[in-house]
Specification:
The protein contains 6 helices and 5 strands, in the order ααααββββαβα. It is of the alpha+beta class and 145 residues long. The protein is globular. A 3-stranded mixed sheet has the order 4-3-5, with no helix packed on it. A two-stranded antiparallel sheet has the order 1-2. β3 and β4 form a beta hairpin. The longest helix is centred in the N-terminal third of the chain and has 15 residues. It binds zinc ion (2 copies). One zinc ion binds next to α6.
Amino acid sequence: MILIQVKKILTNFLQNNKLRKTNERFAILKIIYDIKSHFDADSLYIYMKNNNYNISKATIYNTINILLNCNLIVKTKIKNHVTQFERSYGFKQHDHIVCVKCGKTIEFCDPRIQDIKNSISKLFRINIIHHNLTFYGLCKKINNI
Ligand SMILES: [Zn+2]
Ligand SMILES: [Zn+2]
């Protein structure tokens, strides 16, 4: 169960950093792992409001930072203006294709990217921790108009 594992990671992180283990923080974590998609802080806030969570924007921002620090979420640079995030624990490394017109996002996994990473890593003697790769284009629906 991924949810049990990520809760444990968050609990340990909060304990080690002497942060409070509030229900809100765990509720946010659960929602992020339930929605299984990319999100930004404001849309997460609206989603939680609509689902009757009594939560402040400050708590959302603060918790997103905590989750970034314990590697439970990562930033994805798939939209130009808004910072988006997605859950990272237990999910396969993947990259994105975004339609610049309708915003449709496709996730894909190509093992050749891992090969590139390995050879770059060797060539420049650097241990690559993470990467961001997004292809931008026009999806078929738009192309046909
Ligand atoms: Zn499109
Ligand atoms: Zn993704």
